[in-house]
TrEMBL record:
It comes from Fusicatenibacter faecihominis. This is Metal-dependent carboxypeptidase. Its EC number is 3.4.17.19. CDD domains: M32_Taq. One of its GO terms (molecular function) is metallocarboxypeptidase activity. The active site is at E265 (proton donor/acceptor). One of its GO terms (biological process) is proteolysis.
Length: 499
């Protein structure tokens, strides 16, 4: 171990301790902290975050990171530490170009913007949020002018969440998807639909919690390295591969929501629990590419969880744990899991129309950053696109442009990663079936763990070491394409809707 690496390692350990405390505080705030205790926790969070930031941006740490990027030092490092020093150098070089007073103004504006968004959403009134959104757009452009001068703003934003992806690549696959999916969606939506109202009723939340545990174990989630809790919105929080936590929300009148959230978050968690232990403590020990991460949660949620055969080995057990489901046959149950409908809210959408919700947001983000459409004109654009793609117009902005929080804190360029995740899934499904045979058969035989193992070995093990494009290349040996996802949709829904 070189002296520089020894010093760096001491810094990194300290940073990891701080970030664990920060994570733990945030986990507690979203799961356990009572309303009146929130401000106290938030103050402690700010304290530790500030300490962390000072340590991370210190000159001494930056010098160490630069030294370790020198060839003679770099070559001695393990792949996990090579990734870490490379990533920190790149990020620190950018962060250090942002003037401190600008950073503070942006942070303050972001807090105000989030508050205004909440108020606007509650009042279903976009005009409250419009000036703040305009500010978020302006500040985002300014920040990128410091960090990435001369580069295309929207491409840079996309790269923040899915490194190596740009709008040329994304345009191509999204266009390909849109061309096939629009006519398919129209056909499905005009076909006879199942009757969802038979599922009206009460579903005991405590029983739903037992179902959640059953589903997680079934998929391969390790309870020795993971726990569950409740929160307003489901999320996954990984401390290391040995401690990955998932949350869920249980609705008395809806048994599907918590089951599919469990499967979705379980997919994120299984990813983190199966990263190569040699990467623990490095920056590569979880996946920092949002599209790749999302591809795993969606693979479980949609490709596996919405497959009839996923439920064959466990539907009886699910009914025992949640007796209200005894009224429904497996066929009725699975039919509702694959009910395609035009709806306003992205997070509640089925796997097919979900793609439209993302295409719309992607096109609007391009309108903002490429065509400079002002914030005030966005609700009209939003409504026009919902009419065009899904044939519906929101009654108000709360169920329209104000529904997601992403733009309120300046997370432009994040939405496309959700759809990239699904497009990757189409390709992973093809590759997996080439290796293991039909997913339908594996699931029907109760061997879902075989699929989990394949995902562990081919994707999860590498954490952040492989860029999204490399993951696709290595696993699928093909160029990125929306065709496999389209084929999956066409096969599946032509049968279900008898098209
Ligand atoms: Zn997710």
């Amino acid at each position: 171990m070189s002296p520089a690496f020894e010093k760096f390692k001491a810094y990194l350990d300290k940073l990891n301790h701080y970030s664990r405390v920060i994570n733990l505080l945030s986990w507690d705030m979203y799961t356990t902290t009572p309303k009146l205790g929130f401000d106290g926790m938030a103050a402690t969070d700010t304290y530790f975050s500030t300490e962390y930031f000072a340590l991370y941006t210190s000159d001494e740490f930056y010098e160490l990171v630069k030294t370790l990027n020198e060839p003679e030092e770099y070559e001695q490092l393990t792949p996990g530490y090579q990734f870490t020093v490379r990533k920190y150098k790149k990020n620190l070089e950018k962060d250090r170009k942002i003037p401190k007073d600008f950073y503070e103004r942006f942070t303050a504006a972001r807090n105000e913007s989030q508050r205004a968004w909440t108020e606007a959403k509650n009042a279903a009134d976009f005009s409250i949020f419009a000036p703040h959104l305009e500010k978020m757009i302006e500040y985002t452009k300014q920040q990128l002018a410091y960090t990435d001068p001369g580069k295309d703003v929207y491409d840079t934003l996309l790269g923040l969440y899915e490194e190596g992806m740009d709008s040329t690549t994304i345009d191509k696959v999204f266009e390909e998807l849109k061309e096939g999916l629009l006519p398919l969606t129209r056909k499905i939506l005009s076909a006879p639909q199942p009757d969802s109202s038979i599922f009206k009723g009460y579903y005991d939340p405590d029983a739903q919690k037992k179902v959640e545990k059953l589903l997680l174990s079934y998929m391969g989630f390790s309870f020795d390295a993971g726990v569950t809790a409740e929160s307003e919105h489901p999320f996954t929080d990984g401390f290391s591969r040995y401690d990955v936590r998932v949350t869920n929300h249980f609705y008395e009148d809806n048994p599907f929501s918590s089951m599919f959230s469990a499967i979705h978050e379980g997919g994120h968690a299984i990813f983190e629990q199966n990263v190569d232990p040699a990467l623990t403590g490095t920056a590569a020990d979880d996946c920092c590419y949002m599209g790749v991460h999302e591809s795993q949660s969606r693979f479980y949620e949609n490709i596996l969880g919405r497959n009839r055969n996923f439920w064959i080995p466990i539907y009886n057990k699910v009914q025992e744990l949640l007796p209200e489901l005894k009224r429904f046959s497996l066929d009725e149950f699975i039919r509702e899991c694959n009910h395609i409908q035009a709806s306003f809210i992205r997070t509640e959408a089925d796997e097919v129309t979900y793609c439209m919700h993302i295409l719309i947001r992607y096109e609007i983000e391009q309108a903002i950053f490429r065509d400079h459409v002002p914030a005030s004109e966005l609700p009209a654009l939003w409504n026009q696109k919902y009419q065009e793609y899904l044939g519906i117009t929101p009654a108000n902005d709360a169920e329209g442009i104000l529904q997601d929080m992403h733009w309120s804190d300046g997370s432009f360029g994040y939405f496309p990663t959700y759809l990239l995740g699904s497009i990757y899934d189409g390709m992973f499904l093809e590759a997996l079936e080439k290796d293991l045979g039909s997913v339908d058969d594996i699931l029907a035989a109760g061997e879902i763990r075989k699929i989990t193992r394949w995902l562990n070995e081919n994707i999860h093990w590498y954490g952040s070491l492989r860029l999204p494009k490399e993951v696709i290349e290595k696993v699928c040996q093909k160029e990125l394409s929306a065709k496999p996802l389209l084929n999956y949709f066409e096969d599946k829904y032509s049968k279900i809707y008898q098209l």
